[in-house]
Design a protein that fits this description.
The structure is a single chain. The chain has about 140 residues and is an alpha/beta fold. Helix content is about 35%, strand content about 25%. The chain has 4 helices and 5 strands; from the N terminus they run E-E-E-H-E-H-H-E-H. A 5-stranded mixed beta sheet has the order 3-2-1-4-5, sandwiched between helices. Helix 1 packs across helix 2.
Length: about 140
């Protein structure tokens, strides 16, 4: 039995579609799981300075490295959750909008065993759950 996994990923959530391919005569089994990232929204940092000439003008805010580190830690935990769900896959497809798919690819690449299973990384817009499942099925049917 082969297991193919397609992951639509965004910074807020991911849909993991697992397709279990059995014998050609039998029907494939499909499971869909939604994973939320629990990433906090960016908040306005306290502090900063205003210019003397315009006391109610724009405020310069210093970049807080701790906030960026905290967000990156949260994303890495989110990506680890996704990787755990697809650890026993034979082939993996990662797709989605934005940079999340590239970041997930880098996390997968840290494990040589998982990196060998990665079949493709594609760009895709926001999709419904059924569209994610259909795209995953279509991708792996084209490889067969």
């Amino acid at each position: 039995m082969k297991k193919y996994v397609g992951v639509w990923v965004d910074h807020r959530q991911a849909y993991v579609v697992s397709i279990l391919k059995d014998q050609p005569a039998e029907e494939d089994k499909e499971m869909i799981e939604r994973i939320e990232s629990d990433m906090e929204r960016r908040v306005r940092l306290s502090g900063g300075t205003r210019t003397r000439k315009t006391p109610y003008g724009p405020q310069d805010i210093a970049v807080d490295g701790r906030q960026e580190t905290r967000i990156q830690r949260q994303l890495n935990g989110f990506y680890r959750q996704i990787i755990e769900r697809m650890a026993d896959a034979d082939r993996i497809l990662v797709f989605g909008p934005g940079e999340a798919k590239i970041e997930l690819k880098k996390e997968i690449g840290k494990s040589r065993r998982m990196a060998q299973k990665l079949s493709g990384v594609e760009t895709a817009d926001k999709m419904t759950v059924k569209q994610v499942a259909a795209r995953t099925r279509k991708f792996f049917e084209s490889l067969s």
